[in-house]
Amino acid sequence: MAVSSPCLGLAEKKQWWLSDKQMAIRYVKDAKCLIGAGRENDVVSALNLLDAALILAPRFEQALELKARSLLCLRRYKDVVDMLQEYLPSMRTTLSRSGGDDSSSGSENSSQQFSREQAKLLASSSYSSSSSSSSLSYCSSSLLELQNHDSSFNCFFSVADLKRKIMAGLLCKRCEKESQWRYVVLGQAACHLGLLEDAMVLLQTGKRLATAASRRESTGRSEDGFSLPSFPVLPTTTTEADTTAALLSHVKLLLRRRTAALAALDAGLPSEAIRLFTKILEGRRPAPQTFLAQCFLHRSSAYRAAGRTADSIADCNRTLILDPTCIQALETRAHLFESIRCLPDCLHDLEHLKLLYNSILRDRKLPGPAWKRHNVQYREIPGKLCALTARIQKLKQRVASGEKNNVDYYGLIGLQRGCLRSDLERAHLLLCLKHTPDKATGFLDRCELGNDFDMESIRDRAKMSGLFLYRLLQKGYSSIMTTIMDEEAAEKQRKRAAAIQTQQQQQQQQSHAKAIDEIESKQEEISGSNSTHNKSVYQGVFCRDLAVVGNLLSQVGFGRPIAVKYEALSC
After folding, report:
1. CA–CA separation, 506 and 504 (whole Å)
2. Are 45 and 19 in contact (CB under 8 A)?
3. For 448, phi and psi rounded to 5 degrees?
4. Where are the domains of the chain?
5. What would the pLDDT profile of 52-69 be if each residue is shown by its tens digit?
6. pTM for the full predicted model
């Protein structure tokens, strides 16, 4: 800064013999010396000198180029885009669309402007044809006839159109040479800001203009003019060309991958979209902040379609850390909290969204610079605000009715009701390893942030959001585990009761069987005693009969004994 103080003193005490252009040239020379040193403080001092030069000569091309390159060197990409935003293709498209929308309303104004720009070329006085040629006399005679027919004969044309055409013809030779550095510098700044489509168009245009300039220079030289001393190759130009080519290839790769991921998401393949977006977000080379925020938002939609609510909330948190004014991220996270009946957090996001809508209506423009892209338009904000207010009132009524603590933790973790303990432990382990607070700031290492961002505050917000989600997961795990333990205890109690009932039934069956056996044994004993008594009675009667028969035979005279086998006669 001390080096630039003499030059600033010259700006305050300018000599009368120096013009503004000469003073601007001096400032530019001093700024070149400071930029050549390469130190950041020297570049800041050179930027101050260039601002002073542009105050004296606002259209000094060399000062504009050096200022843009200095801002790019200081990583002040937003200032570069604000300085050269009229060269952005998206801005031109937006302006043309807005002009097409307002063409019907502005046709009357344009006609009035055209009538004001009309100029009268021929007066109503008489024409003398004495000094003209034959052709001119013929034309003047015809004009006199028309004048006699109508004394107010006038011919009109648009001065603005003529001026525009003349200026375009005068500047056509210089525009390519002057705008070449604009395309390259603006393309690099747009790439770092996440405007990849604009960056690709600008870098390709700058590369094409550089190639055309080199071709014209080579065709304008003779064969002897290509010797090494007379045709040196500037290392800065070569380095810039290589940097532009590498940056352009990286931009094309990112756009190609994002297009494939969005196509998979539109085709209803959320797992494939998640894989492709993860490939972009976890790449080795850092990506622009705005581009990463958009990819996190799209991957959140893919997670939501796949039923992974916790991962979707985490990506919404990352999107809001990189872009706190992202309307779609706030809406998505509010819907996710409402889907799991986490109503206080849903109300918090909706209130934040309401404040954002009110600030937009107060400022009469969308948040951020004019070149920033949004998923909504300004004319949609009043209707969205009315619907949002009604939705907030309904949610407050639900909270007042007692739905505050009825959170669906099954939907948060991604489990079904009645799941096993092993399923819960596996899902909880995966979510804790993925969403631990220590890893909440890991995505910032792969993100390109400008100098206008406070890294400490961003890291603190990332840790807070990660800690909130981690605590919510722990609450869900505890709640579901308590439910599973209660179900397991109830199942054990049911099994114990069933076992006791079965044992009682078995005991009853055994006692009943014993009673039946006792009855049968008693019946057998009774039947056995009866049969023994009958046998003895029958045997005694039979023996008496045999004795009587023997006495009778002895009386008759048959004295021979008769062999009788009592064993055969016994019953």
Report:
1. 5
2. no
3. -90, 115
4. 5-74, 533-571
5. 888 888 888 888 888 988
6. 0.71
